[in-house]
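Reproducibility note. Readers wishing to regenerate the assembly model reported in the main text can use the exact inputs given here. Chain order matters: entities are listed in the order in which they were concatenated for prediction.
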Amino acid sequence: MEGLLSVSVGTVFWASISFLIVLFLLSKFAWKPIVQSLKEREEGIANALNEADRARLEMQKLQAGNEQLLKEAREERDQILKDAKAVAEKLRAEAVAKTQADADRMIAAAKAEIETQKKAAITELKNSVATLSIDIAEKLVREKLSDSDKQKALNQAMAADISAN
Amino acid sequence: MPNLLENFKTNIAKTFVICLLSVFGTTVAVASGTDHAGEEKFRPGDMIMHHISDAHQIHIVGRIYIPLPVIIYNHGHLDMFMSSNFWNGFDAHGELQFKPYTASSGTTYENHHEIIYISEGEQAHHEPLAYAQVGHEVLVDSSAHATDSLAVVTAPVEDTHAAHGHKALDFSITKSVAGMLFILVLMVIIFLNVAKTYKQRKGQAPKGLQNLLEPFILFVRNEVAVPSIGKKKADRYVPFLLTVFFFIWMCNLLGLIPFLGGFNITGTMSITLVLAMIVFVITSFSGNGHYWGHIFWPPGIPFGIKLILVPIEILSIFIKPTVLMIRLTANITAGHIIILAFVGLVLLFGQSSAVAGYSVGIGAVIFMVFMFFIELLVAFLQAYVFTLLAALYFGDATQEHHHEEAHH
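Running the prediction on these inputs yields the following structure tokens for the assembly.
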């Protein structure tokens, strides 16, 4: 108890030796692996954060790409629809035109047929009328020529007709 | 959060009980003494010094002591024996008494106030007190015809050093050395274990002891070493800083545990001296040209001022570690003294009357609890301050050149 501030050689000796040994042991076998693992973990965390950031950016990019794709798809769909409509319109127009043409042609054919038929009918009618007229005229002539009087009268009438002409 | 609060509350309760027990325990120990010899006065100063000084045995409580090995280097040979060989029963106060001991080598040693002396001659102890006080010469004369070296000494112990021969070269495992060795072994066990956990649980979240200590390891590395030394060079000094930080902190905490002998490891100058010396050696060896240049030839300062400044700078190389040493010793010792002073206060009043003792005791315990909390903080703080200052010195020594241009 030689005052608190005295220094004992023995204590200094033991403290130096033991502290330095422990310092060496801990530095080599404890602090080195501990600090190493801490560093690795820190790096790991930093890497993970970076990765997450990058993934987020990529996601954003992907989303933007998706949107672009969607837009393109929509445009394409619109285009296709438009095209389809045009085609349909065209087809319809063609169909209409074709139908019209068919109808026209059929009408024309019908008209021609009708004309032919009409002509035939007229011809037939004319023939029938002629036959009938001849028959009637025959009958009339026979009648007129059945007696002399009448023959005379007819002659006269016909002569009168002719002379009147 | 409520869990934490709950913990804190139980901790308060525990500390309180410990304080109470320590006061009560010491009271019992001393009370048994005062019963026998009412005349003798209790001297708080002695009690305090007894607790904070280094010793060759660990005082647990009352009359329970743990002996420690005494190792003495004496003229080319080592004498080793247990300190219990010095013990000579207890006096009326229950205080340990000492007697000389003759080692197997034939040399007789004496433990006088925890300093080992080589007895110059056994006759000195047989002489009456008055004769012994005559002086050194008389004792040297009488040593010539000293024969019965095994004589048991019962004479009262004198205070004059001359009566005890000369100081022995003492390499004993004293209380502080034992405490220090215990902490160092504990540190090796704990941190090797933690290092193993780190290796086994690579890349996983920390667990258990590792989880408990990691914040402090990170604190020393990221808050102490890196800001003071710089990221690039810090790694070289981190092992030392971590070792010193945990060593000081654990030693400080050990000193706060009652019934463990009242260790005052970091309040022992010899031990803080070693720590400071290591800091000094590391600082000097890592000092670059820039560091030494600033000390021996500070740039940009007139010659006249240089004459004054250079000696101051040279002195500061030694002052810095000295300050480290004294600050730690003084802070830790002061904390112990304050707590012990409160104990002494209780015992002092208890001596005059039991009522006074108990009533003062109530107040003293409250203050002691308060002091214990402050000491818990100081235990950490001083470890931090020592580590931080050591790191700053290392940083100073390894500072790069570009700083020089900054203050031109």
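We highlight two features of this model. Residues 15-39, 122-162, 403-408 of chain B have pLDDT under 50 and may be disordered. Chain B is about 65% helix and 10% strand.
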